Amino acid sequence: MTHQFDPTSLREYDIRGIVGKALGPADAVAIGRGFATRIREAGGRRVVVGYDGRLSSPELEAALVDGLTAGGVDVVRIGLSTSPMLYYAEATLEVDGGIQVTGSHNPPEYNGCKIVQAHAPFFGDAIQGLATLAATGAWSEGAGIVTTADVLDAYVARLVAGYAGGAYRVGWDTGNGASGPAIEKLVKLLPGEHHVLFADVDGNFPNHHPDPTVESNLADLKRLVVEKNLHFGLAFDGDGDRIGAVDGLGRVIWGDQILSILVEPALREHPGAPIVADVKSSQALFDRIAALGGEPVMAPTGHSLMKTAMTRTGAPIGGELSGHLFFAGEYYGFDDAHYAAVRLLRAVHLSGQSLTELCDAMPALVATPDLRFPVDDARKFAVVDEVIARLQAGGAEMTLTDGARVTTADGWWLLRASNTQAMLTVRAEAKDQAALDALLAEVDAQLAASGVIRDGQPRKTTTPAEAGAQVERWK
């Protein structure tokens, strides 16, 4: 038996596609067969499997388990879970790998898989190798057994182990994603006053989509924080590996800003350590890491690529603009938004200031949000390559860590191709709005030279200094 995947579903650091078009139960079986083969080749025999709250997840999880057991691998099912819970199970149970069925932050019609083998991300060529195995049918054979494990209580207990973060009034918005059960248990173990929104897991996402990088999705949390006079609010994406935050005034604190708060206690405990941030992150973050005596490391965007950079450098902490925050040192090295929430509570407590005061103290830079616009999968990487070639011919100062991050007298701008969607991403940061406009004009000129026009302008946000301006605070 052989199988042909839709090639658009096999991404750089996970598997993702529209269910019924690019991904279905037959694909899940083939993923299981292929991963079982790789586990067996490495001398392993046991895999843990979980799934998020999407409507299609139970069916895909069942098919995945069928594929794994047909390949001779025993399966431990942890049921409805977040991606960090799956990673925790893979790190603490006696297993050789793990697969989470999840569509992450994508629209409801999407689903996919995030894969771990031997405590390391399974991505890039390894994912493409599953297609090669499927095309030949050269899978291992066997009859694995299936057991179940309940890791939720142990996971939540690990989140608060040794907690010394003080008591706060906090709003929590799980957006009807898979984080709901974990957050409901977590807040019962934390001191302070806690208000949880949308904890019921519902793959229809009836209140708002669980993606905290889109500011409109934070409207309910902002309202809760302001109306109840809370210290701050926290939000999570659909599978619980990305965090968003708002301060006591309802201002958004983006992923790189959250990391900038976490950096100080991390470097106090790990003096001189490398700290990893993705290529989209603010220059203010890299400057802060250096000012605190750390070694700033710029890495490509993507949870698997970030984990690899964390392992390579030995960094105790790292993060992305998107809200993926990674914790090694005292933790397991993976991205965990629930643990990030606990660490943020602790960092605010250790600072002796409120989160609002910490936000006030951040540099007054302006920047675009993460601007994403559609470009065909078959074209997106070529556009970036064309822009890089023109920039190199013109002698531009740039970093090619992930796409092109170009530094000019006005600030910096980034153009990269998304590894998960048919999108290009643009981001720019400058000292004032005029400089930011100049950077965006340069970006648009480069895109136009490759026949691409950005769809729309930077989305509007509100800050105390520039209500309605097309900027974010510090960005």
Task: Please provide a written account of the structure.
- With 475 residues, the chain is an alpha/beta fold.
- It has 4 domains: 7-150, Alpha-D-Glucose-1,6-Bisphosphate, subunit A, domain 3 (Alpha-D-Glucose-1,6-Bisphosphate, Chain A, domain 3, 3-Layer(aba) Sandwich); 154-162 and 169-251, Alpha-D-Glucose-1,6-Bisphosphate, subunit A, domain 3 (Alpha-D-Glucose-1,6-Bisphosphate, Chain A, domain 3); 255-360, Alpha-D-Glucose-1,6-Bisphosphate, subunit A, domain 3 (Alpha-D-Glucose-1,6-Bisphosphate, Chain A, domain 3, 3-Layer(aba) Sandwich), CATH 3.40.120; 366-449, 2-Layer Sandwich (TATA-Binding Protein), CATH 3.30.310.50.
- It is built from 14 helices and 22 strands.
- The strands form 4 sheets. Strands 1, 2, 3, 4, 5, 6 and 7 form a 7-stranded mixed β-sheet that branches.
- A hairpin with an 8-residue loop joins β4 and β5.
- The chain is globular, with a radius of gyration of 22 Å.
